[in-house]
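Hi U.,

Before I forget, here's the chain from the pilot set. I'm dumping it here mostly so it's searchable later in email.
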Amino acid sequence: MDLYYQHQAAPAPASRPWSKEEDKAFEAALVAFPEQSPDRWERVAAGLPGRTPQDAWEHYQALVADVDLIERGAVDIPSSWDDDDERSAGAPAANTDRRAGKPRGEERRRGIPWSEEEHKLFLDGLDKYGRGDWRNISRFAVRTRTPTQVASHAQKYFIRQANAATRDSKRKSIHDITTP
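Structure:
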């Protein structure tokens, strides 16, 4: 049946949009049934209730076309492939700079300051996982922050500790807290 689908004209739009769950199941089926699998599209469609092998093949062709456009630089790369409800579905990403990943003409968004509780969790994680293991500190100690945010916080913390002699002339900071 693969040969039949491969010789068809360009795919027509699907009868109904694909849900995120269907896309995830579709991607998993593509991995489970590689290109040379016999009856690939029937097997893929079997895991997608309400979808036909033709629907699966057309969706695959649309995906291949999208990847081709992205690789040629014809469209912007999404900032995150797994954004959930942060942006409305289908929201245009036309105003983004692909190299920097930031909107053009807009200033950098300011971060949310660390709370005293987060800093104490950071210190606990630092004791437990050591300096440099930002991923585990983020994952198991300060779960509200990403590894990059933890690394940035650590950098500021260690600079503040190194400059302890001049601390009296500076204003107080969360980085002055040294015990969890």
